[in-house]
Amino acid sequence: MPKVLVTAEAFGFGPASKLHAICVELGRRGIECHFVGQMSALTFAQSNAEAFRSIMAADSMSHLAAIAPGGYDAAISVMDPHLTLWSRLHNVPCVYVDSLYWFWQWSPDDEADLQKLAADLLRSADGVAGTLQSLGNVPMHDSQYLAYYLSTVACAQRAPGAAARVSTMAGIEPVSLVDAVVDLSHRAPARPTRWLATASGMLNPLYSMELALEWVTIVARLLDEAAATSQLDVPIDLAGNPDVLARAAGSVPDRIQLIPLDHQGILRAMNHAIACLTPPGLTTVLESAAYGTPVIFLPEQHYAHLSNFRALSRCGGSDTFPHTLLNADAAGPGDNNQLAETAAIADELRKCYAERGDAWHCMVSGIADGMTRAHQDRTALQMAQDEAVRGFVGGYAGASQIAAAVETLIGDG
């Protein structure tokens, strides 16, 4: 049976969710997936262990140096550059999967310098562990270019502008554009009876446990007030990172039920949800659309959520995605200033909650209006969002498309 080493970037649950969808599909095709990862990606894998033949915990991605390449037919990395470097050092074929190809701040003028950086890493005398550690010091956007450059096959999730980037970034051709990478196996007809809110995976290099707990506590009260304003007496389930929810227990209103669902549970809950209330994480939006569940956007958590919202909104009308973002008209993310921008977002949410002024009441109204709209005309809202999402990613067959690419790579080997 073919055997692949897999990982996902520890940035919330989005990358790990995509990896899970791919591994579920590969399992159907008789290919074993052996996971190695850290932090939130590890938490996700351990909560959804059925998709993986084995799970290896890593304190950092330099831990890859302890893994011998023998026996692995290929590697798959979802948005974590370290495994592509490990694969290149050990001549193991690697499929790199990315959902933000359109987002990275690259230009053709950067390619020569970035390729020189890749060559320097490959020639390093520091050993595999030292080389992997050096990659960890490379800025996020630059390291994503290196991942494309070092991989054997790159699969990028479709988005407006992605095709143009394929034609301009000559140094990382070819890049295969694929549909949304989501697990479709749990779709089922059901009567919507509840609100599903999700805090997402939350924990990542930009978002600490302290910030995550603060966001959950504030947003739970925001949801409680919005539900009271809308006068819709419907249960609200709040899912998310189980480590965060465990610490938040006892600090949320009674109306809000904390449910640390595994990923299968989240997807099945979407079948029963009137709407999914979520920060603008791209993976949750795509999964909701694939399951026929409209979304209402909660306040953003980090700098990239605003970019997601804007990109999706350009594919639909101005009111396609009801939201209560802190500042939907803010400037986009700057160049490698992600930590400061994320901290500023957290400060603004904290201030809105502390003051309970016009800004807070506007946020409450934004959610309440979205809930009323979803309750009264769920089908129309869902259809409008599905059209916008399909305009963004094309369709929902990305997991099977990537699995086919893995099969081809293993067969060619």
Notable features of this structure?
five-stranded parallel beta sheet; alpha/beta; 14% strand; 413 residues; globular; 16 helices
Give structural notes.
The protein has 413 residues and is an alpha/beta fold. It has helices at residues 14-28, 39-47, 81-90, 111-122, 127-135, 140-150, 162-168, 209-230, 242-248, 263-272, 282-290, 303-313, 338-355, 358-376, 378-393, 398-412; strands at residues 3-8, 32-37, 54-57, 74-78, 94-98, 153-157, 175-178, 194-198, 236-239, 256-258, 273-278, 295-297. It has a 7-stranded parallel sheet, with helices on both faces. The chain has a 5-stranded parallel sheet with strand order 10-9-8-11-12, sandwiched between helices. The radius of gyration is 21 Å and the shape is globular.
Share of residues in helices? 40-55%
What gross morphology would you assign? globular
The helix-strand sequence is: EHEHEEHEHHHEHEEHEHEHEHEHHHHH
Oligomer: single chain
Count of helical stretches = 16
Count of beta strands: 12
Strand percentage lies at: 5-15%
Summed over residues and divided by their number, the pLDDT gives a mean of 92
Looking across the biggest beta sheet, what order are the strands in? Answer: 3-2-1-4-5-6-7
Q: Which structural class fits the helix and strand makeup? A: alpha/beta
Distance between the termini: 14 Å
- Tell me about the largest β-sheet: 7 strands, parallel
Radius of gyration: 21 Å
Low-confidence stretches: none
What is the topological layout?
Elements: E1 3-8, H1 14-28, E2 32-37, H2 39-47, E3 54-57, E4 74-78, H3 81-90, E5 94-98, H4 111-122, H5 127-135, H6 140-150, E6 153-157, H7 162-168, E7 175-178, E8 194-198, H8 209-230, E9 236-239, H9 242-248, E10 256-258, H10 263-272, E11 273-278, H11 282-290, E12 295-297, H12 303-313, H13 338-355, H14 358-376, H15 378-393, H16 398-412
Parallel strand pairs: 1-2, 1-4, 2-3, 4-5, 5-6, 6-7, 8-9, 8-11, 9-10, 11-12
Helix pairs in contact: 1-2, 1-16, 3-6, 4-6, 8-9, 8-13, 8-14, 11-15, 14-15
